[in-house]
Amino acid sequence: MIVADLVSAMQRLADPALAEEWDNVGLILGDPARALSGPVYVAVDFRPDVLAEARDAGASVVICYHPPIFRPIKRLAGPDVKDLALLGAIEAGIALYSPHTALDAVEGGLTDWLCEALSPPGEGERSSFGDIRALAPHAALDGAATHKIVTFVPREHVEKVRDSLATIGAGRIGGYERCSFELGGAGTFQGGEGTNPAVGKAGRLERVDEVRLEMVCPGRALGLAREMLERFHPYEEPAWDVFPLAAKPLRSAGAGRRLTLDRPATPAELAERIKANLGLNVVKIAQASDEPVSRVGVCAGSGASLVDAAIDEGCTLFFTGEMSHHEGLAAVHRGCTVLLAGHTNTERGFMPVLASRLSRELNGHDVRVSAADVPLFRSV
User: What is the mean pLDDT of the chain?
Assistant: First the structure.
């Protein structure tokens, strides 16, 4: 196998298209054609001690959950810790791949795993959840259906026009071709001086039995669609409209989660569940109420950007890794309790899950969770 095979495997586990626009996911450093030799390491952060561990084991790739290059860099010259780690990876020939928010967003990914921390210990995956959905559903356009073409055709010419548009890619929906919608009606027109109507005579109002024909179409083919209509539509001046289509949201994938508990629980009870399930000694709470909670917002890492969406969705508790004092104050003011478990505490426990899944995708290749990648902060 080569590095490109690992990239393909990671893309199957967490499609980069699911990542936030501001993020930097994918192959961050390395040659895709290089051999995939030695073990693959998985870590939350790529830093010098993780580099040393991977290098000593002869690894050729490290999966870094947090992108080791996030903002544009002008030089790699040290002694910055990130510079040293990146320079070391280059010198050792170690490729770096980051899934970050794509892994958060994918169904069954990191955020869904984190939701399980709200279940009573021992009850199994999501056993106490009702509805669960993304707080910010991922929306994507099908490249084959970015626009819709609508034209009006005499009934006897519909097949010819539909087939001509199908040849340039219109009417493709998933594995189906020549998809269209027809609606009958009456069309009217009156040709001016110098026209040569296909039906009737110039200077006279004509009424024709027509079909409204609708077909999706890729934007890149719109110019060809016009040519097809001019060539195969019987009218001298075909009437046709183009409508851009909006992206379709995917309820089960995207940033954050909104979940409904089958059995409401108090904030204190949920805090104890989080500690037990994540193996923590302490979590922070900013409490808006002691009342039992039935709807919870969840976001791994730093989730303040999703608090308002969670509250708008009726969540009265928001669980994330970290948040500033003023962000928490604003949430509590709106009646939403906040539980903070620590940034990487809400992410690190998923690394063994990722390693196991990646190993299966790579036909049993040795994928290890870095032992050197330990929490930066600890309770004292």
Answer: 93
Q: CA–CA separation, 380 vs 377, rounded Å?
A: 9
Name the token pair of 306.
């999703």
The last residue of one of the domains, among 198, 228, 245, is 245
> pLDDT value at position 180?
97
Same domain for 258 and 127:
yes
Query: How many whole angstroms separate alpha carbon 179 and alpha carbon 62?
Result: 45
Sign of CA dihedral 266, 269, 275, 277: negative
The whole-number pLDDT of residue 197 equals 83
Please state the length of the chain: 380
Lowest mean pLDDT among 36-45, 71-80, 133-142, 345-354: 71-80
- Alpha-carbon distance of 59 to 88, in angstroms, equals 13
Name the region of 78 (left: φ>0; alpha: ψ -120 to 50; beta: rest). left
CA–CA–CA angle 33, 35, 38 (5° rounding): 145
Best CA proximity match to 259, nearest among 125, 128, 120, 349: 128
Q: Supply the range of the domain harboring residue 66.
A: 3-102
- R_g of the chain, CA atoms, integer Å: 28
Mean pLDDT along residues 113-118:
94
Helix (H) or strand (E) holding 210: strand 206-217
Joined together, the tokens standing for residue 92 give 């050792």
Model confidence at 124, pLDDT cuts 50, 70, 90, reads: low
